[in-house]
Design brief:
- GO terms for molecular function: acyltransferase activity, transferring groups other than amino-acyl groups.
- Keywords: Transferase.
- The chain is built from 6 helices and 7 strands; from the N terminus they run E-H-H-H-E-E-E-H-E-H-E-E-H.
- It is of the alpha+beta class and 167 residues long.
- It has a single domain, classed as Gcn5-related N-acetyltransferase (GNAT) (Aminopeptidase, 3-Layer(aba) Sandwich), CATH 3.40.630.
- A 7-stranded mixed β-sheet has the order 1-2-3-4-5-7-6.
- Helix 4 links the parallel strand 4 and strand 5.
- The radius of gyration is 15 Å and the shape is globular.
- It binds coenzyme A.
- The site of coenzyme A has 18 residues, from helix 2, strand 4, helix 4 and helix 5.
- Coenzyme A (COA) binds next to helix 2, strand 4, helix 4 and helix 5.
Length: 167
């Protein structure tokens, strides 16, 4: 069982320890928010800077943190972002369970008509997970960021409330 609870600043050192390279930082959070080397204080400051950000920590059945995600309302769409499972906990269903819980949180707002996210096109594992939960690719932004001399394409995916209700 995987539950979501509100992210606490004291979670930041653990969450930051799951990011082990500049590449994994960008895969997780894009290029706009943070700089490498990543420091937990950047994460605390980022979440504190904007009250529309709703950060969550995913915990296992014993209450141990295993993941992180964030919701942010942007009009009728809710943005799902900063999806991360602890490297040691991957492949056990935590990613799927925490996104299922995140979708329930997002659609609990009556004005939320869809949930959207961005994922880099080479991140096949994450894309499979999102597609399993009903997200569909909507748009590709080619050469969205450059990391270590390589251009990465970014894919916007969306799940509408109707699709979520039917899933
Ligand atoms: C993408 C990410 C969140 C997925 O988290 P996860 O906890 O590994 O996800 P799940 O366990 O739900 O699913 C992953 C795989 O494990 C499999 N799995 C789930 N439960 C399992 C179990 N009990 N036994 C065996 N396999 C299992 C799933 O079927 C899935 O297989 P697939 O990759 O072949 O489709 C995680 O890999 C991650 O944090 N990656 C780095 C950051 C990132 O890419 N974030 C997304 C940015 S858009």
């Amino acid at each position: 069982m995987t539950d979501l609870r509100a992210f606490e600043p004291t979670d930041a050192p653990l969450v930051a320890s799951w990011i082990d390279s500049e590449e994994s930082l960008v895969v997780w959070s894009g290029k706009a928010a943070f700089t490498w080397p990543f420091d937990p204080r950047q994460l605390v400051a980022f979440h504190a800077a904007d009250p529309t950000r709703r950060p969550y920590t995913a915990v296992d059945r014993g209450g141990a943190p295993v993941g992180h995600l964030m919701l942010r309302s942007t009009g009728g769409a809710v943005r799902l972002g900063m999806v991360l499972v602890s490297p040691g906990a991957r492949g056990h269903g935590h990613g799927e369970a925490m996104i299922v819980a995140g979708l329930a949180e997002a659609f609990a707002s009556p004005e939320a008509d869809s949930v959207e996210l961005g994922v880099y096109a080479h991140n096949a594992r994450a894309m499979r997970l999102y597609e399993r939960l009903g997200f569909r690719p909507e748009r590709v932004d080619e050469r969205s960021v450059s990391v270590a001399g390589q251009w990465w394409d970014s894919v916007t995916m969306r799940l509408t409330r109707q699709e979520w209700l039917e899933s």
